[in-house]
DNA sequence: TGATGCTTTACGGGAACCCGTAAAAATCAG
DNA sequence: CTGATTTTTACGGGTTCCCGTAAAGCATCA
């Protein structure tokens, strides 16, 4: 099993239980920090001392407080880490359940495991560590399930651009110009109207307000 | 210090760390459950056995899974509990940070302490237990702070009703009828327009879509 | 090449919404 | 009760949005 692990997690209670979970796996050399900047320092220092960490277990969202930080969230921490230690195994431990976000973590940021904070998260974390140790990636089944669920409507690039612009306060009649400026293809006012209608009809909405809230909650905009 | 405590928390990792926190306070007789229904059973049985719990520490949101539950969230658990054991001390331990929701817990549901899952939550939980043991209520300072912060705009009953109706898909021109049906006072179309304009102007928005997302995120609708 | 089907665009009438003004109603002080 | 102030309502013209239809663009295939 892994020997040297770093935990980056701002919630004290989560941090404590991750420590305990690692103890159960007889991993004694686990360090824990509450800020991304600290995590990055520890990772750097470990490399300098020629005793690098094998695994980083990190949360995604870190709350701001009065101590100013350079790195403010898990994704930026992962990006920064990749630059100095590309082979570090990364397991993300977060409440995030939106498939689009989790997919990105694997596909764009190349993480090795994802454990969602939920009913059996401590057990899942153990499974994840074992899987990653055996050079497999770990993604719990319920996430894959919700990927399927989510396919109630397949949002295209245009769809997301349109709703984003609306949410930013753009007038509908001005959206064609914005789309043309960004070289997004169907850009006429008719097309914008058509896409909006299709989205609303598919999702059972009648007003743009509902659509905006829906997209915002899903993390699409 | 308290002797007999029940923990209702669906996240295994949070549950573990609450247990550990109670151990630190040398509270050995702490039971823990992962479902509200179980919590309610344990509370009932303890009363039947004439050895009732002194404190309930509970989360607010419990995730659904394949086991169907009667009580599905912390607030309903608190309500049910109040009916069978009104003097039970209740400490809520949740990620919820919206002041309107937390205020309700104290004012409507009469809880004794609130600890937000955050950077020093384990320490705060200890403080809360000590405070409640000394017959004081416990509400961390950062919540009170955010109550003040939130006062960028004071939403009235009408405001919330209007945005809710919009979010439910009601046409703006039909909202006056809805308001009259509910006996909400300024109900003319002009008033609706005026309130909407005031809200948007104060919050720096130009479109209803932005307002709807804002209110939804704040838990106002 | 030209016929065919699909997507995108253009346009126009009507509905909903925005905004300013003014009347009506409610509130309040003296 | 009266007059002044504020709040609420009523109304109208201009803009934006909705929606249906028709034309234009574009790829496919005989």
From TrEMBL, chains A, B:
Q: Which Gene3D superfamilies match?
A: 3.40.50.2300
Chain ranges of the Response regulatory domain = 4-132
Entries under SUPFAM superfamilies matching the protein: CheY-like
Alphabetical UniProt keywords: Phosphoprotein
Source organism's superkingdom?
A: Bacteria
List this protein's GO terms for biological process: phosphorelay signal transduction system
| Pfam families, A to Z | Response_reg
| Keyword Signal (UniProt) | no
Give the modified residues of type 4-aspartylphosphate: 59
Its name, as the record gives it, is Response regulator transcription factor
Q: Which species is this UniProt entry from?
A: Sphingobacterium olei
């Amino acid at each position: 099993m892994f020997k040297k692990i770093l935990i980056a997690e701002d919630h004290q209670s989560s941090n404590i239980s991750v420590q305990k979970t690692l103890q159960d796996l007889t991993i004694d050399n686990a360090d824990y920090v509450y800020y991304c900047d600290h995590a990055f320092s520890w990772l750097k220092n470990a490399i300098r001392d020629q005793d690098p960490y094998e695994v980083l277990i990190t949360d995604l969202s870190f709350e701001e407080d009065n101590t100013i930080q350079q790195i403010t969230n898990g994704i930026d921490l992962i990006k920064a880490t990749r630059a100095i230690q590309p082979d570090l195994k990364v397991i993300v431990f977060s409440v995030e359940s939106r498939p689009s976000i989790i997919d990105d973590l694997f596909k764009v940021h190349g993480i090795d495991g994802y454990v969602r904070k939920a009913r059996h998260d401590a057990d899942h974390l153990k499974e994840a560590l074992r899987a990653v140790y055996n050079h497999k990636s770990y993604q719990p089944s319920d996430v894959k399930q919700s990927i399927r669920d989510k396919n109630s409507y397949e949002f295209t690039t245009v769809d997301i651009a349109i709703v984003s612009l609306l949410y930013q306060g753009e007038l509908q009649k001005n959206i064609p110009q914005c789309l043309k400026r960004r070289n997004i293809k169907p850009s006429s006012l008719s097309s914008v109207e058509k896409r909006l209608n299709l989205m609303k009809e598919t999702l059972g909405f009648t007003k743009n307000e509902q659509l905006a809230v829906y997209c915002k909650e899903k993390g699409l905009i």
